[in-house]
TrEMBL record:
Organism of provenance: Leifsonia aquatica (Corynebacterium aquaticum)
Protein name: Alpha-L-arabinofuranosidase
Gene Ontology biological process terms from the UniProt entry: L-arabinose metabolic process
Highest taxon above the source species: Bacteria
Boundaries of every Alpha-L-arabinofuranosidase C-terminal domain copy: 2-111
Gene Ontology MF term list: alpha-L-arabinofuranosidase activity
UniProt xrefs under Gene3D superfamilies: Golgi alpha-mannosidase II (2.60.40.1180)
Record-linked InterPro entries: Alpha-L-AF_C (IPR010720), Glyco_hydro_b (IPR013780)
Length: 118
């Protein structure tokens, strides 16, 4: 089931879409397994962005959930996987901290991050 996600971030101007958020996210919950997944994208091109996730609305459901994160990014914005280097850009474990019902993770510039709770 898709969850309501409220993201507040800086923006950048585009000709076609006007002001676009630097960070966007979606989240899902699998009622059968009790697992949550959050997917975040950072469009910032020149600096990392801190993502703060408030799990308070999950209440007791969030207590005791394990948390892991993986990020797809590369400092070279033109980096690509090739036959010679097929793993040049790949998912890597990302450090994420938890303080009570708050998660914090640094999203690298131009990145995609998966956060799993379960």
């Amino acid at each position: 089931m898709a969850l309501d996600v409220h993201v507040t971030s800086g923006t950048y101007p585009t000709e076609r879409f006007g002001e676009v958020p630097l960070v966007d996210a979606v989240a899902t919950h699998d009622a059968e397994s009790g697992r949550y997944a959050i997917y975040a994208v950072s469009r910032a091109v020149d600096a990392p962005t801190e993502l703060v996730i408030d799990l308070a609305e999950l209440g007791a459901d969030a207590t005791g959930l394990t948390v892991s994160a993986r990020t797809l990014s590369d400092p070279d914005l033109d980096a690509a996987n090739t036959l010679e280097n097929p793993d040049r850009v790949s998912l890597a474990e990302a450090p994420i901290t938890r303080d009570g019902s708050t998660l914090r993770i640094e999203l690298p510039a131009v990145s995609w991050t998966e956060i799993l709770l379960g």
